[in-house]
Design a protein that fits this description.
By secondary structure, the protein is α+β, with helices and mostly antiparallel strands. It is built from two helices and eight strands, in the order ββββββββαα.
């Protein structure tokens, strides 16, 4: 379980299993939940993460994908709980980044000809079919 602490300024020493939230600076920070020790910064804004405080627990949305870390951990923080998400491959990461850029450009009215619409998600390889065939083929 992750604790949360509302702070004005993020402390120099970030503790494990604590989500620090600065409403003044619209930022939340925590140590990566995989244990690698990296600090994960999640800006809170209309184009980044959304914070929900229900009076007792906090949630961040969308999921947190640490694609720039070696661990490449991927998870949600929902009601102070860590909910692990599936790994993304390189194609999915590129797709997600491209759509993030396009959404931000559109939101901030900086959309131009090279940023015209949201990219379509690449079709997922149907690995499950191959897996099932390997199990049930004789």
């Amino acid at each position: 379980m992750m604790q949360h602490r509302f702070v004005e300024i993020i402390p120099d020493a970030v503790e494990d299993d604590v989500l620090y939230i600065s409403l003044k600076y619209c930022t939340a920070i925590h140590k990566c939940v995989c244990g690698c020790g990296n600090e994960v910064v999640t800006p809170i804004s209309p184009t980044d993460w959304k914070l929900i405080f229900d009076g007792k627990t906090v949630s961040l949305s969308p999921s947190i994908g640490n694609w720039n870390f070696n661990c490449q951990s991927h998870y949600w923080i929902k009601r102070n709980e860590i909910v692990y998400a599936r790994e993304w491959d390189k194609e999915e990461i590129q797709f997600g980044r491209a759509n993030d850029e396009k959404r931000k450009a559109k939101y901030y009215n900086k959309e131009n000809e090279s940023v015209s619409s949201v990219t379509k998600r690449p079709k997922k390889k149907k690995r499950w079919k191959k897996f099932l065939k390997s199990i049930f083929s004789f």
